[in-house]
Amino acid sequence: MFMEVQDAQGNGQTSGQAARGESETVITARDVDVYYGNKKALEGVNLDIQRHQVTSLIGPSGCGKTTFLRCLNRMNDLIDICRVTGSITIEGQDIYDPAVDVVALRAHVGMVFQKPNPFPKSIFENIAYGPRIHRIARNKSELNDIVVDSLKRAGLWDEVHDRLDQPGTGLSGGQQQRLCIARAIAIQPKIILMDEPCSALDPIATAKVEELMEELKAHFTIVIVTHSMQQAARVSQRTAFFHLGILVEQGPTEQIFTTPQDARTENYITGRIG
Amino acid sequence: MTNPFGAQSPDIKQRRAAQTRFEWGGRLAITVALGFLLAMTVTIAWLGVGALQQTEIKLAVDLGPDNIDPNDLKGASYNTIVKNALKARFPEVEGRREKRDLYGILSPDAGFELKEKVVADPSLLGGTRELWFLASDDADLFGKGRVDVTLDQSQRRLNDLEVGWLQDLKANGELQKRFNMRFFTHGDSREPELAGILGALVGSAMSLFVCFILCFPVGVMAAIYLEEFAPKNRISDFIEVNINNLAAVPSIVFGLLGLAIFLNVFGLPRSSPLVGGMVLSLMTLPAIIIAARAALSAVPPSIREAALGLGASRLEATFHHVAPLAMPGMLTGAIVGMARALGETAPLLMIGMVAFIVDVPTSLVQPATALPVQIFLWADSPERAFMEKTSAAIIVLLFFLVVMNLTAILLRKRYEQRF
Questions:
Q1: In the predicted structure, residue B123 carries a pLDDT above the cut 90
Q2: What's residue B1's pLDDT?
Q3: Mutating which of B310, B319, B322, B414 best tests the A interface, going by the most A Cβ atoms within 10 A?
Q4: ipTM of the predicted structure?
Q5: How many independent structural domains does chain B possess?
Q6: B156 and B220 in a common domain
């Protein structure tokens, strides 16, 4: 289904409403190993990610959580020495299948990065770029609607509506990050990956982004990597704990934080390691 | 009570002294460097400013019908008219040798100059007119006060008789200095007072044009491919090493290559700005590739990730985002490369741009010379008056170099850190 962009958006609206309440697996990872050259960064990861939930990946630095996240939209392809084995399927399609078009995949699986990285262009252009290259808007007014709608959904509209032609890089850090989220949802993905989206933000901006995630999860499946266990506890329904390249434990967030099964998880969440 | 933070320990004093020594050493180095720069600039400017002026001599020439047939303006012997005017001005001069010296205070072009004036303005005809004529190079030096008349005549280019005539002219207000427009509107000449910089200037401009057209697109595309698309393996390492080596190859080697390939194999016209530009582009290309790659790698990876994360293809990410952001840096690198090419002499010598060329080139395949080569040619000439021409040419060259480098700096400042 990632062979073409149109395909990826075509069946979006219906599944958005269908999956309210009951959980349905969207992403399935089986026996995923990741190597950087000869170094094994991830080993034997098996993880299911549910539709319309926020799943957080936690663990100490270098544990492989970001590596795993970047496998989900094949951003690891950019690293020459990176090699992924095992299978990752999204909506039933193996995304490492040679027939998969990575461009269509990334239109379906959006990403928000650790450091806000708006393009050094106007706020409008930042958001319009994605819809433009994927030809989502048929004309100028449709494009305009997408930009306005994305900004509204990212909770940024009130702050920037009178200066859409100003450079996106001129916004504050928190606004930039919400601009990046708006940019990501403008191409109507089904899944949004967030790589420590709040690590460069102050607590107030962080609160806004977390609030936003809460609203967005009704329409998107969100996977977030975070260093803050409080954040994981606040925003996510499921949590997966990585340690030294191994997925140690996964489960409902409440369970992970209250009754962890594994000693390493307990040590981490109580602050003894990491 | 003693100061607990005072510098009592000998160790602290030593550390402080080491820093002071270093700072003074640095200041000394900068002073010496600036001193040399100042000495060079002042010397060149002092010598070169003379070339901006030119000495002229006033003569009463007889343009009556005896000398010029109004129906055949071009047929008259203007040289004789000028010589007669000189003889009339100094009737005491006798003998072949003295007469030759007398005629020598005027430029050999004086007769031609008169013809031009008459043809342009026939109303001058019909009587004796007082006109200004270009002085010869040695007389010009006298006019500018650069002849030491206290020396014995065997020590200077003008003998006592000539100095006497010139002093006479000067005393009577028949010797004047005028702005030397000719220097900027004419090509080279064997006579210093006639020589101009325009031919070399146009030659240089044409060569640089060809050089830019050839190496900017090629260099930028090569850099984009190598930086953004090429797989990193042993072949790309090998290419990278070789590009860096090429940038360090002495330019005369590129000149030899141009001679062997462009002239001998392709049979392109010798001494032409076309070949000059091609040879310069060989030399500039590695520099542009290196500068463009540096500009591309200075674009933060987060911009690439942002574009790719939105589902842009690599080509789109590169040409929509990375390359435009790197463009000022690439242009800066290109301009600096061009400035280097502008100052390059050796490769142009090899392809024959060192030839003595009087005409200002009007096309890319005509013989031409270039600014630095012109400087070399004039510096090589025995006539003393070429010294100031050399300096003036250096000023012109430096002017363009400064303008180009300034543009590069402004461009860098203007677009610095937009991300």
A1: no
A2: 61
A3: B310
A4: 0.86
A5: 2
A6: no
